[in-house]
Structure formats: structure tokens, C-alpha cells
Design a protein that fits this description.
single chain; alpha+beta; Uridine Diphospho-n-acetylenolpyruvylglucosamine Reductase, domain 2; Uridine Diphospho-n-acetylenolpyruvylglucosamine Reductase, domain 3; Uridine Diphospho-n-acetylenolpyruvylglucosamine Reductase, domain 1; 3 domains; 5-stranded antiparallel β-sheet; 4-stranded mixed β-sheet; 6 helices; globular
Length: 289
């Protein structure tokens, strides 16, 4: 078995908001076995590895790191039916596509998550959620590889570790696959629920490239409300700006590549303005390279 070939790409090409002017070598394993062998190879070399997923909450870097390799898992997209309601998914499966696909076979319950543009691996790593539902509600098993030791890692239902934007998956683990349990459903009703959610998303999602919500919601109030009342809407830095539609979104309206430092500087200003006004320290939701 040969290792996936490294490809040097600009960071902004693997970040959905197009942030990062440096370059990064990436690998694109085509099978789960390729992924496992490649990760263990790089761990043995002492190389730092970063799972990239779909890049929907990833801020790249303006610097080239010689000891770092990005792992693009979007090619790992196999779905297997294990039982009437148990599905084994590779980590690169696109969450909305999976929800739509299984709805046609009479399996559902996940329509509330159908508008989240992430891979299964990314969804599990951050416990992606919407409308009072989250990926943890359906997760039975997670498999991965520790990027420090190279050892296999597993989680099984009942072991806990979930919370709001919190997952039992350690930051050092690259997810390889997961088992989800869905419920029987009427295909037409489920498809209608998915269409309704996708239409709602289209109405409320700010225009422009983004990485989704910048900050997690604190217990006291939604982050968007705090940021709006602090006067953050419309602030700019480089090609990035705080959305006029939702103050907890930084957008790239031009679609041009931008400096990661500009994007992060804008987030830092937003955080400071909320702390100055309300005494609340917002927590960043993005992954920063």
C-alpha cells in the first residue's frame, strides 16, 4: 500500500472563508486503510497533523510550517447499512448529503441538522447542532487515530463527554469513521422537514463566504445579541467584515483570499468590545491553524 501523495496548496483554499496566505502540504487518502497507514507514518516521523475536513470552521495560516501536514478526508465518503437503523459512515461523508440520502430509504430524525455544511468527522469533533438537536443524539460509536501516539481510539455510547459544542473526541484524534442510529420515518414527511430546514437556513445565513459562528453562545445571552449591542456589525479588516445580517458572523464578501491575521484581528476586536461593555469573555468557535 502506497502513501497518499503530498500536494502543496495555499491555506486559503482549504478554509471556507478563504483565510490564510501561507502554504500547507496536504494529503487526500482515498480509503480508510490509506488514512490509517498515512497517519501512523507521519506520527512516526513526528510530523504535526491537522484534520481539515470541509474547512467550514477552519482559519488557515499566513505562515508555512515545515513540520505540518493537513489531512483532507473528504474522499472518505462510504456509507454502509449495518442494521435496519444503524449506519457506518467514513469521516469524510458530507452530513447534509447523508441526511438526504437516508431519508429516501425511510430513515430519519436528523432533518434539523441538514443545513450544517460539514463532514461527519467535523460534526462529531464539535458536536454540531441546530434547532435543539445535535449529532450526539444519534452517535453510537466513533473510531479514530491518535495523532500523537498513532494508536487507535474509540468511543462508545454511554461513555459521555458531550455538551454544547463539546465532544468526547480529544483534539489530538483524527476521526476515521462513526456509527449513527437513525429512526424509521416516512420518506415524504422527512424530505419535507429537510426542505423546510434548508429554506430556513437560506433565509437566515449571512451572504458571503464564512466559517459559521465566530463565538460560542455564553450562558447569559446569545453571542450575536451581545456583539450587536456592542456595535460590532459592519467592522472590517482586510477582506473580512462583521456581517450586517448577523453580528456573530465574519464574512468575506469579495471571495478573495485574505490574511488569517486580519480575520483573527477582527475576531479579537469583537471579543474585546463585548468584554468592555458586558464583562463577558466570548470563546472562539473556530479552529485556528
Amino acid at each position: 500500500m502506497s502513501l497518499p501523495e503530498e500536494q502543496i496548496v495555499p491555506w486559503h483554499t482549504v478554509s471556507s472563508i478563504r483565510a490564510g496566505m501561507g502554504n500547507v502540504p496536504i494529503i487526500r487518502p482515498k480509503t480508510a486503510a490509506d488514512l490509517t497507514e498515512a497517519l501512523q507514518h507521519y506520527v512516526h516521523l513526528g510530523t504535526r497533523l491537522i484534520p481539515l475536513g470541509n474547512g467550514t470552521n477552519l482559519i488557515g495560516s499566513d505562515t508555512d510550517y515545515p513540520d505540518l501536514v493537513g489531512v483532507k478526508t473528504t474522499g472518505l465518503d462510504k456509507i454502509s447499512l449495518l442494521d435496519n437503523d444503524l449506519f457506518l459512515l467514513e469521516s469524510g461523508v458530507f452530513l447534509p448529503a447523508f441526511i438526504c440520502t437516508v431519508a429516501r430509504t425511510g430513515h430519519g430524525g436528523m432533518a434539523a441538522l441538514s443545513g450544517i455544511p460539514t463532514t461527519i468527522g467535523g460534526a462529531l469533533a464539535m458536536n454540531a447542532g441546530a434547532n435543539g438537536s445535535s449529532i450526539s443524539d444519534f452517535t453510537v460509536e466513533i473510531n479514530g487515530i491518535d495523532l500523537v501516539s498513532g494508536a487507535m481510539w474509540q468511543w462508545h455510547t454511554g461513555e459521555g463527554g458531550w455538551g454544547y459544542r463539546r465532544s468526547p473526541v480529544p483534539p489530538t484524534v483524527c476521526i476515521t469513521s462513526a456509527v449513527l442510529k437513525l429512526s424509521p420515518c416516512t420518506a415524504a414527511i422527512e424530505r419535507k422537514a429537510i426542505e423546510t430546514e434548508l429554506e430556513r437556513r437560506r433565509r437566515v445565513t449571512p451572504k458571503g463566504r464564512s466559517c459559521g459562528s465566530v463565538f460560542r453562545n455564553p450562558d447569559s445571552a446569545p453571542a450575536g445579541k451581545l456583539l450587536e449591542e456592542s456595535g460590532c456589525k459592519g467592522m472590517e479588516c482586510g477582506v473580512f467584515s462583521v456581517s450586517q445580517q448577523h453580528a456573530n458572523w465574519i464574512v468575506n464578501l469579495s471571495g478573495l483570499p485574505g490574511k488569517a491575521e486580519d480575520c483573527l484581528a477582527l475576531a479579537t476586536r469583537m471579543k474585546k468590545m463585548v468584554n468592555d461593555k458586558f464583562g463577558i469573555q466570548l470563546q472562539l468557535e473556530w479552529r485556528v491553524c
